[in-house]
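Tip: read the tokens left to right.
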């Protein structure tokens, strides 16, 4: 494309180019329409090359896992293989646990064995009498738990755990639960550059409780923010009105932004799967808007969301309760442990750090508009309150 054509193209849209920008679009004419789309809501009559580079440079974000794939037809063999694979995958973590001494399979429990350990898949539990029915590849067993075992309430069906047991007469008792858990990271994952990630969600602009002033505070904060590389992750529930989404994304057009749909949001182009596992310069980030966590919030009503996430991370599986979905590769099995774990939906802000993982629950613009900003190079976390 000729220089004169490029100049005319931008002038007709109300923009002027500096010399460096003109040179860029001479070499990359295919980027012109995309660029204009990104700036159509911004008041920038003179386009500088720094501005062009900021909007069009590669984001550096990689999507590591697709959580949406599943088989459409289930056979008995599919179910058997699915749970057998889960058992084998998590067993590899548990066999390394020093607490699980004298490991045996269920069919090897004899009258002569008094103390032993098991690795089992949980079929069901009952708080009445602290009982659980468990199984492995060799059989099924009913186990009673000592009431001093505080973690009993955290056991859920279909997960794989380790148990330190003893046999008294015909009864088997568990004295301790051993979770697969995650190893302590010798080095906390960090990026080589100063990359800032803002995690925000739950605007609910169509709600009567929407705090418009807090939203304005957020936009004012963005205008004043001076971060060279700022990634904004919008984790769902912006509004059921698509105009609200268009307006928000227009205001954010000069930033690297990524969107996960919540339950109230209409379909929108360029969304990430919910949930998603992504990577930026070697730092892995798990992003979610609830979906898979509702069952656990109902079960563990006394726990804040970030503690619910932590319990599931310790299980090395983010959704162990079977929901009739069979996957070729179980996406919720944590073979890759994220460095940052963030979810919207609960409207309860909270943050904890555990063995090198930063675990975050977002606030909302109808309750507490508290969110977090993380510098991936230092892994320093900043609490941002838009009240």
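Filled-in amino acids:
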């Amino acid at each position: 494309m000729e220089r004169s054509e490029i100049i005319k193209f931008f002038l007709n849209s109300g923009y002027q180019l500096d010399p460096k920008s003109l040179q860029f679009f001479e070499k990359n004419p295919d980027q012109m329409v995309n660029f204009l789309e990104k700036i159509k809501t911004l008041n920038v009559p003179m386009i500088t090359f720094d501005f062009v580079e900021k909007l069009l440079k590669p984001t550096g974000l990689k999507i590591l896992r697709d959580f949406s794939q599943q088989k459409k037809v289930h056979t008995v063999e599919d179910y058997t293989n699915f749970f057998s694979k889960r058992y084998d995958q998590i067993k590899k973590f548990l066999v390394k646990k020093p607490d699980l001494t004298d490991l045996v399979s269920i069919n090897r429990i004899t009258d002569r064995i008094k103390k032993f350990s098991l690795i089992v898949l949980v079929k069901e539990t009952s708080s009445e009498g602290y009982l659980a029915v468990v199984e492995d590849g060799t059989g099924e067993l009913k186990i009673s738990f000592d009431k001093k075992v505080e973690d009993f309430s955290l056991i859920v069906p279909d997960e794989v755990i380790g148990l330190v047991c003893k046999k008294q007469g015909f009864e088997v008792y568990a004295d301790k639960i051993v979770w697969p858990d995650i190893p302590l990271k010798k080095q906390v994952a960090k990026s080589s550059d100063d990359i800032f990630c803002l995690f925000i969600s739950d605007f609910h602009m169509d709600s009567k409780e929407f705090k418009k002033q807090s939203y304005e505070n957020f936009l004012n904060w963005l205008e004043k923010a001076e971060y060279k590389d700022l990634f904004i992750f919008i984790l769902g529930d912006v509004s059921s009105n698509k105009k609200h989404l268009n307006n928000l994304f227009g205001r954010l057009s000069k930033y690297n932004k990524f969107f996960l749909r919540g339950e109230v949001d209409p379909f929108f182009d360029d969304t990430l799967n919910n949930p998603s596992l992504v990577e930026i310069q070697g730092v892995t980030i798990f992003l979610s808007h609830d979906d898979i966590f509702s069952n656990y919030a109902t079960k563990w009503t006394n726990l804040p969301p970030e503690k619910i996430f932590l319990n599931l991370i310790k299980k090395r599986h983010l959704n162990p309760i079977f929901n009739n979905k069979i996957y070729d590769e179980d996406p919720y099995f944590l073979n890759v442990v994220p460095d940052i774990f963030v979810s919207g939906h609960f409207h309860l802000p909270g943050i904890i750090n555990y063995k090198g993982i930063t675990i975050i629950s977002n606030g909302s613009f109808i309750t507490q508009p508290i969110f977090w900003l993380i510098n991936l190079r230092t892994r320093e976390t900043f609490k941002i309150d838009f009240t």
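The radius of gyration is 26 Å. Residues 76-94 form the longest helix (19 residues).
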